[in-house]
UniProtKB/TrEMBL annotation:
Name of this protein: Transcriptional regulator
Top-level taxon: Bacteria
UniProt xrefs under Gene3D superfamilies: Winged helix-like DNA-binding domain superfamily/Winged helix DNA-binding domain (1.10.10.10)
Annotated keywords: DNA-binding, Transcription, Transcription regulation
Domain HTH hxlR-type, first and last residues per copy: 18-116
PROSITE patterns (UniProt xref): HTH_HXLR
Species in which this protein is naturally found: Spongiactinospora rosea
Keyword DNA-binding included in the entry's annotation: yes
GO MF annotations in UniProt: DNA binding
């Protein structure tokens, strides 16, 4: 284990580490990040989310929303209209996370080309010679 990982984990018991990793895995998922970013600005309807998130299926969006609601990161509000109007809003906890997600996204945009170049160089060096 690297020194950096040792410093972080020496203060956390195994049960806490598993809980922390579970939360990080949940909020770092491809669709979770996108949904959290979209809902941070205020209430958003399901169809708005569906249209604004390219490539997500209705089922995956539904599962992602349910998981984020279960984790306390979004609130689902159903209005008694016909048809029913449903909105999703980020909670205070999610809005705090939003600032970190924006920073992480900016980092990925800045360093994405370098990561791709590094992968290409690594793969070239690791490829067997013909």
């Amino acid at each position: 284990m690297s020194q950096r990982n040792t410093d972080v984990t020496e203060h956390v018991d195994e049960g806490q580490a598993c809980a922390i990793l579970d939360v990080l895995n949940r909020v770092s998922g491809k669709w979770s990040i996108t949904v959290l970013i979209r809902t941070a600005g205020g209430p958003v309807r399901f169809t708005e989310l569906e249209r604004s998130i390219g490539g997500i299926s209705r089922r995956m969006l539904t599962l992602t929303l349910r998981n984020l609601e279960r984790d306390g990161l979004i609130v689902r509000t159903v209005y008694p209209t016909v048809p029913a109007k449903v909105e999703y809003t980020a909670t205070e906890m999610a809005r705090e996370l939003y600032d970190h997600l924006v920073g992480l996204t900016a980092w990925a945009e800045r360093h994405g080309p370098a990561v791709v170049a590094s992968r290409t160089a690594y793969d070239r060096a690791a490829a067997p010679s013909p």
